[in-house]
């Protein structure tokens, strides 16, 4: 069954690439041209590249139709935090069908497989995920906060390496994403250690109140934070966490997508406060599920209120 699905996916991608190249060829031959000549030539080259990529044994993710659809839906993605073509819901079905119940390692594997071979998703990915894993192992946090659950992939990764008594609280803006994440986390057997909360730290204060009153967030209580949500909110949300007094000396904040799409204000803040409030390591990496577009992850250790 899986082989049949993969064959259909490959054929559809190949046909789409061929159709794009054919349409570009028609435009080049047409006596009436309403677009500059470079446009059909570019479309033809892209169509050929997409076709070759689909037929290759190891396709490059950002030359997949699923990646191009994501780019074309970037406005929807930036406002709703879903691509808008059903791929997030499809991921949940894929995990529940193909991952062994109660096996968090297998759930991570299946999500990676889906992102590489079916539809590209904006989670942290396997390469940067390994950086996140190592930070959690080193810190051994008992109280973790994630901003940006999306479909629960990074929560899966943190849950499998954090201490058995630890608890992760993950904040997600989109209720549909939150429900998808809960389904995946429950299937993986870690729902009792990960709490997904719909909201944002930048709302009227309701989400922070819930963290304080319902989940025990208080002075010096937070050991680890992972930032992978709205890039414009990285620095304001970090400041909100500091204002609440939740961090203590030795708390670690890990931030994704520092180079792509980039978080210049956050990066400048960490640089300006190096050796005073923070000690930061920059991990060089690549955008998820490919090896050409470079990215970076910042791992920052808080030095304490009186530093």
Outline of the structure:
With 307 residues, the chain is of the alpha/beta class. It has helices at residues 2-29, 38-55, 65-72, 74-80, 87-98, 104-117, 125-139, 153-161, 175-188, 206-215, 234-244, 258-262, 264-272; strands at residues 143-147, 167-172, 194-198, 222-227, 247-255, 278-286, 294-302.
Mean pLDDT: 85
Q: Which strand order do you get reading across the main beta sheet?
A: 3-2-1-4-5-7-6
Strand-residue proportion: 15-25%
Helix content estimate: 40-55%
Category from helices, strands and their pairing: alpha/beta
Radius of gyration: 21 Å
Number of helices: 13
The major β-sheet equals: 7 strands, mixed
The separation of the N and C termini measures 59 Å
Could you say which overall geometry the principal axes of the C-alpha atoms support?
A: globular
Order of helices and strands: HHHHHHHEHEHEHEHEHHEE
Number of E-type strands: 7
Describe the structure.
By secondary structure, the protein is an alpha/beta fold. Helix content is 52%, strand content 16%. Helix 6 (104-117) crosses helix 9. It is globular, with a radius of gyration of 21 Å. It starts with a helix and ends in a 5-residue tail after the last strand.
